[in-house]
Amino acid sequence: MFLALLSCRGICGEVENGPLLEKWPNGKTKVQGAYKGGKLDGGYKEFYEDGKPKLSCTYKDGARTGQCQAFYATGVLRS
């Protein structure tokens, strides 16, 4: 489920190297990550509009490494 959502995010091909940062209209961070060689690399996080964490994953060369952590809107980790 998460791989399909994170593989492109509607910005494929736009960022070759460097940070990925999207903001909500209220100025809080919506998505935070980094690209290397056009692929997600390193930490990737999504946030709810109020700033609480929604999703946290780690990528290496575009492939997810380990488990993602998903959070309810209350900030509680989903089990």
Characterization of the model:
It is built from one helix and seven strands; from the N terminus they run H-E-E-E-E-E-E-E. The model is unreliable at 1-11 (pLDDT under 50). Strands 1, 2, 3, 4, 5, 6 and 7 form a seven-stranded antiparallel beta sheet that branches. The protein has one helix spanning 2-6, and strands at 18-23, 29-36, 39-40, 42-47, 53-60, 63-64, 69-70. With 79 residues, it is mainly β.
Structural key phrases:
mainly beta; 1 helix; disordered N terminus
Main sheet record: 7 strands, antiparallel
Tell me the number of strands. 7
Distance between the termini: 15 Å
Unreliable spans are 1-11
**Could you state the order of secondary-structure elements as H and E?**
HEEEEEEE
Report the principal-axis shape.
flat
User: What is the helix tally?
Assistant: 1
Q: In percent terms, what proportion of residues is strand?
A: 35-45%
- Bin the helical content: under 10%
Mean pLDDT: 86
SSE class: mainly beta
Rg over alpha carbons: 12 Å
